[in-house]
Each structure stands twice: as C-alpha cells, then as structure tokens.
Amino acid sequence: MAGDQKGKAKAEQLKGKVKETMGKAVGNESMEAEGRAGGAKGDARQAKEKAKDVFKH
After folding, report:
1. pLDDT tens, N- to C-terminus, the chain (57 residues)
2. What gap in Å lies between CA 3 and CA 38, rounded to an integer?
3. Contact 13, 37 (CB under 8 A)
4. Are 49 and 29 in contact (CB under 8 A)?
5. Shortest CA distance to 5 belongs to which of 34, 37, 42, 36?
6. Where are the alpha helices (DSSP H) in the chain?
C-alpha cells in the first residue's frame, strides 16, 4: 500500500511539472499555476508517506 501511495506522489509531481512547463511554454499562466498546485499536492503526499515510514521503523 505504501509503495502505491509513493508512486501516486511521484506521478502527481511529474504531472504537475509537465503541466507547469507546458503553461510556461505557451504563455498560459492558469495552466502554469495548476501545474504548480499539482506538484505541491504530490510533494505533500510524498512528505506524508515519508513521515509514515519514520514512525514505522
């Protein structure tokens, strides 16, 4: 289960980065902001999973 969540975190981070980059490339500030938000969501999920790992060990 934890591996699945870590994978989701990485996927969200990647998807956010791609969307942010595409927004910059086409000059779409809204898309760029959505990308940053998606990346931040992935970062938060990853931090949560790391914290859970610390308490498991």
Report:
1. 467 888 999 999 999 999 999 999 999 999 999 999 999 999 999 999 899 888 876
2. 20
3. no
4. no
5. 42
6. 2-26, 29-56
